[in-house]
Specification:
Elements lengths: L1 H9 L3 H10 L6 H8 L3 H13 L3 E6 L2 E6 L6 H10 L7 H9 L5 H16 L1
Antiparallel strand pairs: 1-2
Keywords: DNA-binding, Transcription, Transcription regulation
GO molecular function, one term: DNA binding
Protein name: ArsR family transcriptional regulator
Length: 124
């Protein structure tokens, strides 16, 4: 029952559903998810932690980056079923379609460069 409840709670938040829809198209880091959804980095991280604990996402460190992807569902039959279904759900929603288009223009290198420039301005 606990695994079922975790999956359902994770999917009860629209931002977390948006994250899953983005991750089905490409792996992303926290800063890319933050930029796409227009939320704080701490909020994006919190959402990702909930999704991971439910067995819906996974991550892999790659140097300085932490890349998030959809999980394979092996941790929970409920996560596996929902991941399989969510691939097809909401595809005709304009909000999801717009997110799907814009995520390919969001690049972590650009985000980091912009942050570096902002930090340089703040330190002078």
């Amino acid at each position: 029952m606990k695994k079922f409840t975790k999956v359902m709670k994770a999917l009860s938040d629209p931002s977390r559903v948006r994250i899953l829809k983005m991750l089905q198209r490409k792996q992303m880091c926290v800063c890319e998810i933050q930029k796409a959804l227009g939320i704080a980095q701490s909020t994006a991280s919190k959402h990702l932690k909930i999704l991971e604990e439910a067995g819906l996402t996974t991550y892999k460190k790659d140097g300085l980056w932490v890349n998030y992807t959809l999980a394979d569902g092996s941790d929970s039959p409920y996560a596996a079923t929902m991941l399989g279904n969510i691939r097809h759900w909401l595809e005709n929603e304009e909000e999801i379609a717009e997110l799907s288009r814009q995520i390919f223009d969001i690049r972590r290198e650009d985000i980091c460069r912009a942050k570096d420039r902002q930090n340089q301005r703040n330190n002078h």
